[in-house]
Design a protein that fits this description.
- The protein contains ten helices and seven strands.
- By secondary structure, the chain is α/β, with parallel strands linked by helices.
- α2 crosses α3, α6 packs antiparallel against α7 and α8 packs across α9.
- The longest helix is centred in the first third of the chain and has 22 residues.
- The N and C termini lie far apart (73 Å).
Length: 289
C-alpha cells in the first residue's frame, strides 16, 4: 500500500515537473541566425529573423532633409567600421522617425554583401532590461549591428532606463564596438514632463533627482528633432509619392483632396500623407509597390 502510494506521488511529481518545463520560456540562444534583420525576443529564444523589413525608399522622406542626411552619414560611417554616435530621434508624431531609421538601414546596405551588410535588430521597449544580455550575444559576432527601439520612454516607477544607461555608456563592459543604438521618442528627455516636475517638487535635492533621470538622453551623441510640417512640406510629400507610384490624377485636384484629408485628421505629417496616398491608390485600383 505504501509502495503504491509512493509510486503515485512520483508520477504526480513527474507530471508537475513536465508541466513546469512546458510553461518555462525556452533558453535564449547565444548564436545569431542568418539574415539582415532581427527582433530581440528573449521569451521566444532570443534573436528572431525577419524576412523583409517594411520600409519606404529614403528619397521619399520629405521635409526632414537635415535629419535624413545626418543619420545616413552617421550610419554609413558605422557600417564602414568608423566611429559613430548613438542617435535619439525625438519630436512630433508621424513625422518619419521610425521610417527614417529603416530607410537609412536599407540605403546603407545597397551594394553591400555578406558580413559587410549592416544588421538591424529591433528591441521592444518592454525588453530594455534584457539589453545587456543581448549585447553579450552580439559582442563576439563578426558583423556590425544597428539596435533600434521605437517609441522609447519611461514612466515614474520604471527603473529599466538604468540598464540602458549602463549599456550605452558607463558600464564596465560598455557598448560593443560593433553595436550602435538608435531610439525614437516623442519626448526629448525620454521622461514625461509631469514626472520631471514631480521630481523637482518632492526630492530633497531637486536638481540631482532630475539630472539622474534626464542624463539618459545625454548618452546619445546625436539628437535629431522632428517638428510638425507646414502645408508646403506636406504637399511635397504627396508629390513625391505620386511621382514614385505613378498616380494619375490632376495635381490641383490631388492637392485639394490632400488638404481636405489633412483637415479631417487635424494634422499634417508624413504619416497622414502616406495614409492619404493609400486611400487614393485604393480608389484608383493602384498597388503601391
Amino acid at each position: 500500500m505504501v509502495q503504491r502510494q509512493k509510486s503515485g506521488e512520483d508520477e504526480t511529481g513527474a507530471r508537475v515537473a513536465e508541466a513546469l518545463e512546458r510553461l518555462a520560456p525556452p533558453a535564449v540562444s547565444a548564436s545569431v541566425p542568418g539574415g539582415n534583420a532581427f527582433v530581440w525576443e528573449p521569451g521566444h529564444g532570443g534573436l528572431v529573423a525577419v524576412a523583409a523589413v517594411a520600409h519606404v525608399p529614403l528619397k521619399l522622406l520629405k521635409g526632414i532633409d537635415a535629419a535624413r542626411d545626418t543619420l545616413f552619414e552617421n550610419t554609413r560611417r558605422f557600417a564602414d567600421g568608423l566611429p559613430a554616435n548613438n542617435a535619439l530621434l525625438w519630436g512630433a508624431r508621424g513625422m518619419g522617425k521610425s521610417s527614417l531609421v529603416k530607410a537609412v538601414h536599407a540605403e546603407v546596405n545597397r551594394g553591400r554583401a555578406g558580413d559587410a551588410m549592416l544588421a538591424l535588430v529591433e528591441i521592444h521597449r518592454e525588453e530594455i532590461a534584457s539589453l545587456p544580455q543581448l549585447l553579450r550575444i552580439l559582442r563576439d559576432a563578426k558583423r556590425r549591428f544597428l539596435l533600434y527601439c521605437d517609441d522609447l520612454s519611461f514612466d515614474k516607477e520604471d527603473t529599466s532606463y538604468k540598464s540602458l544607461k549602463a549599456a550605452l555608456e558607463g558600464g564596465i563592459e560598455g557598448r560593443p564596438a560593433n553595436v550602435l543604438f538608435y531610439a525614437t521618442s516623442n519626448r526629448r528627455h525620454l521622461m514625461p514632463r509631469d514626472m520631471m516636475e514631480n521630481e523637482r517638487s518632492t526630492a530633497i535635492n531637486p536638481s540631482e533627482a532630475v539630472e539622474e533621470k534626464v542624463s539618459l538622453s545625454d548618452r546619445f551623441g546625436l539628437w535629431l528633432g522632428f517638428h510638425n510640417c507646414g502645408q508646403d512640406e506636406y504637399l511635397s510629400m504627396i508629390d513625391a509619392y505620386v511621382a514614385h507610384f505613378h498616380i494619375d490624377m490632376p495635381r490641383a485636384e490631388l492637392h485639394a483632396r490632400a488638404l481636405t484629408w489633412a483637415a479631417g485628421r487635424g494634422a499634417r505629417s508624413g504619416r497622414v500623407a502616406w495614409q492619404f496616398m493609400q486611400d487614393i491608390a485604393g480608389e484608383l485600383g493602384k498597388r503601391l509597390e
